[in-house]
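[09:14] KT: can someone run the structure on this one? pasting the chain below
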Amino acid sequence: MKMLADRILVKIEGPDGERRSSGGILIPATAQLSKRLTWAEVVAVGPNVRTMESGDRVLFSPEDRYEVEVRGDDYIILRERDVHAVAAKRLDSEGTGLYL
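[09:31] RB: done, structure tokens below
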């Protein structure tokens, strides 16, 4: 899939946005707080995206998204400006691994 302009295609980790606490407790997506940001993995990026690559993890608001189904899998389309942070192994040498 080829994304256009500054668009990013991401896949939310875990089924339906579920997450685990630091103690290992599974927290369902329905228990998320309204202003809680979500992590997802970048699957594809448009040609004008400058700060992330496929395989990076990004932090975004679940309210700023468009959902799409591709070959039976659910993905989210974001704009680069809607991403709050990027975590990638290639950034580890620069400090925290987060690009804010």
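[09:33] KT: thanks! Strands lie at 7-12, 19-20, 26-27, 38-45, 57-60, 66-70, 73-79, 83-87, 98-99.
[09:34] RB: yep, looked fine to me
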